[in-house]
Structures are given as structure tokens and as C-alpha cells.
Amino acid sequence: MDGDHPPASGPLLDRFSRVADDLRVSVTDRCNFRCTYCMPPEGLDWLPRSEILSFEETARLAALLVRLGVSSVKLTGGEPTVRKDLPELVAMLREAHPGLELSMTTNGYLLDRLAAPLAEAGLDRVTVSCDSLQRHRFAEMTRRDAFDRVLAGMRAAHEAGLSPIKVNVVVIGGVNDDEVEAFAAWARETGHLVRFIEYMPLDAEQAWERAKVVPSAGILERIARLHPLVPDGNGTEPATSFRFADGAQGGVGVISSVTEPFCEACNRLRLTAEGALRTCLFAMGETDLRGPLRSGATDEELEGMVRSAVWGKWAGHRINHPDFVRPARSMSMIGG
Known about the structure:
about 30% helix
């Protein structure tokens, strides 16, 4: 191995000695919500179905990446549950990789009927996005009156054994930042792991304002005043996690992508719905795997493309630097 070329074997290594072993797989760019920090009310121009990877194509690329060291796969979107027959893909992945950590991030709207089939197919757990515990505010932020349905989905997920359930809360100043303490209390009541995510510049309308970013440090201070916290070992997760010092169930975490970036320890890759490999959420470029795949590329050829892409991963997203440029595609188009 030299400084200009990736290693020909071994784990997926980049030039900064980071090992990529966590994969986000977007199964669709479509979504049944219209969250204000993600997309406009009318939605976006969805990809033609012919451009979306088939389950067989997704499974082949996932198998390739697992052979190269990926040990954790999370299905994302858009909203993954709007992809028809999603349990079939889960079953394909589980049958091929019995020991794989296999999870999904979802808005929870369809979990009331899909949780059991997904669990039976082999899904391990779910992360549900829920940005408010107030029905009217939830409707304002998602542009859908779906709060009760999402709670029902979480209950169904719990009953199906898709736990521990993680709940992602995007905190936006002046919008829902007054609910931090309520979410912490709710975590103690339900046993869920609530993770507060800093507001990132990934909305399709490019309306993000730095002034609306609520620093994670302040969120933790507010919670600790009411419920003292104890650090909880979290491995390579981007979230810094805590349990409650009094032994209550549940827990909280923060994902400080803006104020305290964790790029130096990043182990993540993303495969978009149309088969592009991205080495960073904010990357300005990506590697097309669908084209070569459909043109008959061998696994060895695809492996070379993957290794080169990972080797070229940059040091970090520079979100706090004057020369930061946000990606052209929004979060829903990239895959969370």
C-alpha cells in the first residue's frame, strides 16, 4: 500500500486510517411526509422507478460490502416503508448474512402494519423520527396529522421485538427546542432511547439558518438538571449516549454534527436509492455503482471502485469553515 492507492485487500480503509464498516442503504427517495426541514410541501421530483436499484441489485452490493468488512446495515429512504414488499429485501439480507446488524430508520407511519412482517423477515430494530410530542406541532413540522399513527407504530415495533427503539429528534431553535425536557421524561416513561440531532443544512429548500442550531451541550445541561446522566458506552455510533443516573429505563443521546463534528471517527458509507456510493453525508461527489453493475461488472471490478471511493474520503465536511459548500442533494435524496 502507498499513499496514492487503496489497499488491495483487508478492511475498507481510507487515507486517515478510518475503517468503513457501517452502511446506510436508501431503498427509495420517496416519502409520505413533507417535513419542513427536509422538503417542500409539494415534495420533490422522484426518481423514475427504472433508476432505483432492484432488491437483487441492492442485495448484491450489500453482499459485496459485507465481504469487505461492513458489519452493520441500516435501511433508509426517503421513507423506506413506502417501498413495496420491503420485508422481502430484509429477508434476502438476513438469509445471506445471519450475523449482520440490520436496522431501519423510519417515520413510523406504516409501522403499525409492517413492524411484525419486518421482524419476522429478520430486522433487528428500528429508529423512528419524531420531532414533537405535541400533536399540533408534529403536524406543523411534518405537514401531516399523523402523531397518533406514529405512536401506534412505535408500540407495534415494541411488540414485534424491534427494540431498543431509538427516537430521532431534530432540534430547531424557536420551533421545538422547548420540548427537550419533555422528551427526556418520555424516554424514562417508555424506555425508548431519544437522540437529539442538531439541525443540519440538508433541506431541499436551502432555508437552513445557523442561528436555529441548538448546541447539544446545552441540551444535555438542561436534561441533567432534572435527571442526572451517566455516560453510556456507544462504540462507533455518532450519538453520544447517556443513561439516567437513578436507574430509570430509557436513555438520551446527542448527535452534534454541527457544533462538535465526529468526522475523525466516521466509519459510515451510504448507498443511495439509485446506486451511488457516498463516503460522507455532505460529500460533493459520489461513485456510480449501478451503471457498472447493470453493464456486467464483476465483483472484483466493483470492489476496486468501492476501495477507491473509500480511499478518497475526505477528512471532514468543514461545516464550520468559511469555505463550506452544502451538497446539491437534500437528506431525503441522499438517504439518512
